[in-house]
Every structure is written in structure tokens, then in C-alpha cells.
Design a protein that fits this description.
Blueprint lengths: L4 H11 L1 H14 L25 E6 L2 H16 L5 E6 L5 H9 L6 E2 L9 H19 L3 E5 L3 H12 L4 E4 L14 H11 L2 E4 L2 H9 L7 E3 L3 H16 L14 E6 L8 H16 L3 E6 L4 H11 L5 E4 L4 H10 L2 E4 L2 H6 L7 E3 L8 H4 L3 E3 L4 H13 L1 H7 L11 H13 L4
Parallel strand pairs: 1-2, 1-4, 2-3, 4-5, 5-6, 6-7, 8-9, 8-11, 9-10, 11-12, 12-13
Helix pairs in contact: 1-2, 2-5, 3-4, 3-9, 3-17, 5-6, 6-7, 10-11, 10-15
The structure holds uridine-5'-diphosphate.
Uridine-5'-diphosphate (UDP) binds next to helix 3, helix 12 and helix 13.
Length: about 425
């Protein structure tokens, strides 16, 4: 018996790009060589593969944060066995960190497009993603495609779906800085996906307002919360149940205070990143109770200056990126967090950890408005001032550390899949 269609695809894509491209090229020459592929079809109408079987949904992502935020959606899709067939497709835009996240998140991948190359430009990421996605879409024939956030993978997958008239569902839609170069290129990726998406899943009412202001019809927007909170709560339960201690995180005396740091944004490369490192140096010199743990991104623009400027300081631990479970455990143990990460800004308030945002602007103002996060930029003196305030002023610390969850209640994935059922379901 022949393997099912998806099994064949899984194998060929896993064996590497050349095999899969040849295979698709061969298919093209055998099947209807003169007619355009596929015939245009309306959003939500059945594809030739649908028949009586449940609709096929492709979930496409390429980086660690997308994996973290789509994992609960994939779990929810798979839990509704019989309602959907789910194809999990990764581009591996970021390879190492993504692979690390996949195993901790217990995700199985059906298609790996392997587009990652050393030091590739944005042009190269986009062209590689588009050509591999075309082959994948032809193989899978999804009836809906789910993308998340603002990466080049998310934009490429949305565009690839649009070209074959398959509806796109955008998870975490509507975040904006209105500065097209910060974050770069993510701000524009996000705006372009909004134009394409059939369903925009806004995490907060503010994100919905942004979309409405841009002319996205209200029936294409649903405020559902951010799926990052679903996943965080899932992981916190696991950590508590196993009394897990993260490897690489030093054990602390009761007097010591852990400052957890992440920084990887393109806009901060160069002087911004140096400002962050010099601020950390000043803080450990002034405050002997401080222990810094810095999860250092493998990008040479981060890795090299971090090691050059603060690599040899006592009480500064430069560590490799932690797997998601270890990172959540480290956040739980921290006194405060310095970060330019989007996801960490969303997670920290739930854990009651004051967050200083190492950027000029944030597309996640909700935690700032509630006084749980503060945008401090990358100037050395400013970072030092704000950290010292939180170390020395217990009232200021108490105000920023009372837990709250402005980005979601942990049920976003359920709402997303409910809505998807209405879009492509067969009335089960
Ligand atoms: N994270 C992780 N290990 C680390 C640092 C961060 O697993 O060493 C997680 C973090 O909990 C959050 C996500 O990665 O869920 C954020 O990813 P990143 O900062 O790379 O991207 P962004 O959120 O800025 O798009």
C-alpha cells in the first residue's frame, strides 16, 4: 500500500531540499501542464483534497518565539481530532533555537523547509522561504494557514497562501509601533500580514483598535488574548509539579538578587548593545547582591560584544540561550528582568517580575500602562538609574511586581480554534 500523501511529503521534505524540489517539479510536468495551478477558489471553499475528510490546516513558523506561541494552538487543533487535520511546517529560519524549543514544547514537525543559511540577508530569507513554501503548499493543499507574529517566515507564508487563495489566520495581529524601522523588518511584516489575513487574532483591545484604524473590517478581527500566556501557564504548572531547577542558573543566597537579561533586536546592534553591557557592568560593581544571568543570543552582533565587554566580570553569567522550560524557571527565580524581547515583555507581568524594556519604543504598551514594565532604551546611565531604583526603593519595586496579565487569560488558543472551526469546519 502506498503511504498516505502527507507521509510521502514528510519523508521527501526531510531528506533535503533537492529531493523535494525535484519531486515537485516532476509532479508539475505530469499534472495538467498547461493549466494554471491551482484553480482560483473562494476563501473557505473546499479544495480538491477535502472530500469528506476534516479540513486540513497548515501551521507555518520559523523561529523560537513563533514555536512557543503556536504550540498551544497546535495542541488545541490536535485535541479536536476529527475536526481538523493539522500539518506542522517549519522553515527553520532560525535553526538552533527553534529545534531546542520544539523538543521542550513536545511538537512534532511534518515539513521542514530548512531555509537557514549562515549570515543570509533578508532578501535571501524571503526568496528561499517563498520557493520552498510554494512546494509545500502544493503538497499539503491546506484549507487554511495559520501564521504568528511578525517574522519574515510569517509574512512569506501569508503571501504564499494568498497566491493560492487560501485563507490566512494571523495569530497576534495588530501590534504596532508605527515606526517602520523599529522593529525592523517586523513592523512592516506585521502590517502586510494584516492586509492579507482572513482572520486577525488580536491579543488585546488595543491591537484591535490599531487594525480597525487601518481599515481592517471588524468581522475579520477577534480579540482572543495572546497564546504566549496559554503556553506560559502550561509550563509553569509543569515546572511546579516537577520542582525543576534550571541548569546554568546559579543557586542564590537569600540576600542575592537575580537580574535576568535578554537582548537580540537588530535595532540595538552596535552602540545600543554596548550601552546595555556597560550598564550591567556598573550595576554589578555598585551592588554586590546582584547576580546577572544573560541569555546570550548566538548572533555575533550580540555574542561578540557581550563577551568582550562583560565576559570576565564576577557575578555576570553569560550563558547560551536556555530552553523554554529553563528560561521560564529562570524568570520565576528572578528579581527583575531586562529585555528587548516581545514575548518576555508579555510573560513577565504574569510572574510578577518588573520588566525594563531595552528599546526606544514598544508595540506592547499594555504592561507599561499598568506600571509593570518601563521602556528605558539602551543608554547606559538611564538603565543604571532605573535598575538601582528598583534595587533600593522597596515601594517602587512592590508596585511593579504585583502580578497581572494584560496580554491574556490562558484561553486564547481555544478561542482561535473555535473561530477556525467556523471558517473551515464541516459543521461537526
Ligand atoms: N526564551 C527562551 N530562552 C531564552 C530566552 C527567551 O525560551 O534563553 C523564550 C521566552 O520565554 C519567550 C520567547 O523565548 O517566550 C521570546 O523569544 P525572543 O525574545 O527570541 O523573540 P521575540 O519575543 O522578541 O519575538
Amino acid at each position: 500500500m502506498n503511504p498516505p500523501r502527507s507521509e510521502t511529503a514528510r519523508n521527501s521534505f526531510r531528506q533535503g531540499e533537492r529531493v523535494s524540489e525535484e519531486r515537485v517539479a516532476k509532479q508539475d510536468s505530469q499534472e495538467e501542464p498547461c493549466s494554471p495551478w491551482p484553480p482560483p477558489r473562494a476563501a473557505g471553499s473546499p479544495s480538491k483534497s477535502s472530500g469528506i475528510s476534516p479540513p486540513k490546516v497548515a501551521v507555518v513558523f520559523g523561529t523560537r518565539p513563533e514555536a512557543i506561541k503556536l504550540a498551544p494552538v497546535i495542541r488545541e487543533l490536535k485535541a479536536r481530532n476529527g475536526c481538523f487535520r493539522t500539518a506542522v511546517c517549519i522553515t527553520s529560519q532560525h535553526n538552533e533555537l527553534l529545534q531546542q524549543a520544539l523538543s521542550i514544547l513536545e511538537l512534532t514537525v511534518d515539513y521542514d523547509l530548512q531555509i537557514m543559511r549562515e549570515n543570509q540577508s533578508l532578501y535571501q530569507v524571503m526568496t528561499a522561504a517563498m520557493s520552498k513554501l510554494e512546494a509545500m503548499m502544493r503538497e499539503v493543499e491546506p484549507e487554511a494557514v495559520i501564521v504568528q507574529g511578525d517574522t519574515s517566515t510569517a509574512f512569506a507564508a501569508a503571501l504564499a497562501s494568498y497566491y493560492i487563495k487560501v485563507p490566512v489566520c494571523h495569530v497576534e495581529a495588530g501590534l504596532r509601533t508605527y515606526d517602520k524601522y523599529a522593529p525592523f523588518p517586523e513592523e512592516i511584516n506585521r502590517r502586510l500580514i494584516a492586509c492579507i489575513a482572513e482572520l486577525n487574532f488580536a491579543p488585546t483591545p488595543k491591537a484591535r483598535e490599531n487594525l480597525l484604524r487601518e481599515g481592517i473590517p471588524s468581522d475579520k478581527i477577534a480579540v482572543v488574548g495572546n497564546t504566549v500566556i496559554d503556553n506560559l501557564l502550561w509550563m509553569v504548572e509543569k515546572i511546579k509539579a516537577s520542582e525543576f531547577n534550571a541548569p546554568g542558573i546559579p543557586s542564590l543566597s537569600p540576600q542575592e538578587k537575580l537580574i535576568l537579561v535578554t537582548s537580540h533586536r537588530r535595532e540595538n546592534f552596535g552602540p545600543g548593545f554596548e550601552g546595555i553591557c556597560l550598564a550591567l557592568r556598573d550595576i554589578v560593581q555598585k551592588h554586590p547582591e546582584v547576580v546577572v544571568v544573560f541569555s546570550v543570543h548566538p548572533n555575533p552582533n550580540v555574542y561578540l560584544p557581550a563577551h568582550r565587554l562583560i565576559g570576565n566580570l564576577p557575578r555576570v553569567h553569560l550563558i547560551k540561550p536556555l530552553d523554554y522550560r529553563s528560561f521560564v524557571a529562570a524568570m520565576m527565580k528572578s528579581y527583575l528582568i531586562l529585555t528587548d524581547s516581545g514575548g518576555v515583555q508579555e510573560e513577565a507581568p504574569v510572574l510578577g517580575k518588573p520588566t525594563l524594556v531595552l528599546r526606544q519604543v514598544t508595540e506592547r504598551p499594555e504592561a507599561v500602562e499598568l506600571g509593570r514594565a518601563k521602556v528605558v532604551g539602551t543608554q547606559q546611565q538611564e538603565i543604571v538609574r532605573e535598575v538601582v531604583r528598583l534595587l533600593e526603593d522597596s515601594d517602587a519595586y512592590r508596585e511593579m511586581s504585583s502580578p497581572c496579565s494584560p496580554f491574556g487569560d490562558g484561553k486564547a488558543s481555544k478561542r482561535i480554534v473555535d473561530r477556525l472551526e467556523k471558517l473551515v469546519g464541516r459543521g461537526r
